Amino acid sequence: MEIINGFWDALKGIYQGSGLMNLDWRNYLMIGIACVLFFLAIKKQFEPLLLLPIAFGMLLVNLFPAIVAGPTTEMIPVKPEELDHYSNYAKTIIDGQTFVSKPTSGGLFFYLYQGVKLGIYPPLIFLGVGAMTDFGPLIANPKSFILGAAAQIGIFVTFVGAVFLGFTGSEAGAIGIIGGADGPTAIFVTTKLAPHLLGSIAIAAYSYMALVPIIQPPIMRALTTKKERAVVMKQLRPVSKLEKIIFPVLIVVIISILLPDAAPLVGMLMFGNLLKESGVCDRLSKTAQNELMNIITIFLGTTVGATATGENFLSLSTLKIIALGLIAFMMGTAFGVLFGKIMYKLTGGKVNPLIGSAGVSAVPMAARVSQKVGQEENPGNFLLMHAMGPNVAGVIGSAVAAGVLLSVLK
Amino acid sequence: MDFIGKFNLSATILLTGFAIVFAVLVFLIFIIWGYGKIVSTAQTKHHERKTRKELEKIKNDNPEIPSVEPVAVKPVRAPVVDDSVPDEVIAVISAAVYSMYGSREKVRIKSVKRSKKRSAWANAGVIENTRPF
Asked: How much is the ipTM here?
């Protein structure tokens, strides 16, 4: 009988500790959303390298919320002969019984999340991005920086919209940065300005980056004429190795002096690029591009996904953030194209305005969209390298915009 | 925050954001343009100096090499060359023509122009390498 009772108690304990007792409808809804993200990542291949870890983090945290729980202490009763063993712990005596406060460890994602919370992962991602980026097109045509700057206007215009929708200044800054279409920058700014919105902002930012080929082309076509889209641009000049080596050092010196808050992002971006361009750190460059980047992507993706618990995510603010993020992204694209049109006029038709939309970062997808839309008008037109200039300028531009927001709003 | 407060905050961020992002990036345009000029000029000069030094060294090491007196040569009509075609490419084309025909055949390159259109094979290659999706 005792065995059966023990067995029954064990079953009851397991049932009471299971998700069936502890999860509410919001968790189940979030599990459903995670499954939709799985579908988009696996079947539609929308940014799968990020969307899949994010979706899995989301799934796991909604099944087992304690995975993000921080360390706590528990009071355990001890016998007098065990006191020596617990000499380092705080003790409490209640009714003659001694209790010690024994620390318990936190959930797995609590520790992995420290890299997000402390702003470690985004700069490390930028290190890998820098090691993979060729700034040659930007050095060959520095005017591309204008397009990279124009595409950041969406960030500041959306900031205004967010403030008037009831968000605080810090929250509005974090929401606006979605318009930069740069995941690591969005996460970096949000952890500093509005950490409680991280899940919604990260998911909105990465979703829109994945939807670049769907969101951008209609805006590009609406704002340009057939003649403008068909412009064939002159081949870029060759850039020497010395110029490519000087570039990252020069940029990091200038940006760090002018905007110290952007230094972690721009610094690591340029460090990664210097590893690549120097040609003497091949092993380090490859590690930054591959192993390190992949490891950080897994940690960043799963832990950012784990911030999207039902309680945090399912709110009116999330819907507002998703809508504002889309507006920010569309405005960034539109302003990039409009400045491209200005350059088209000023250069007497030598610049194809379509490359302006690539100023919204999202490397290299936004540049590929410029190439695709350009080729629809003229199959012999190859805008890819020309669009890479504004595209990498957009990465620097969004880091500068992040520095501005941090220095004003922090 | 009341309406005035929101308006002030928005206007401040909008103005500061526009001004700083554009100022920094325009500043970078000038810096990159400037250092591009400096580096390419310095590299050209360095290259010229190096070539001159090498020639002088060869001359000093081999004093027996007679200095060549300029000889009046019958002017040869130079081929018409497109400005965008580098000298190295002209040299390669000339070498290829020479290796094909040798000096016995009377062949002359009249002009070198960059093709406006890619060949079907080149187009196929570029499309393959730049296919967006």
From this structure: 0.82
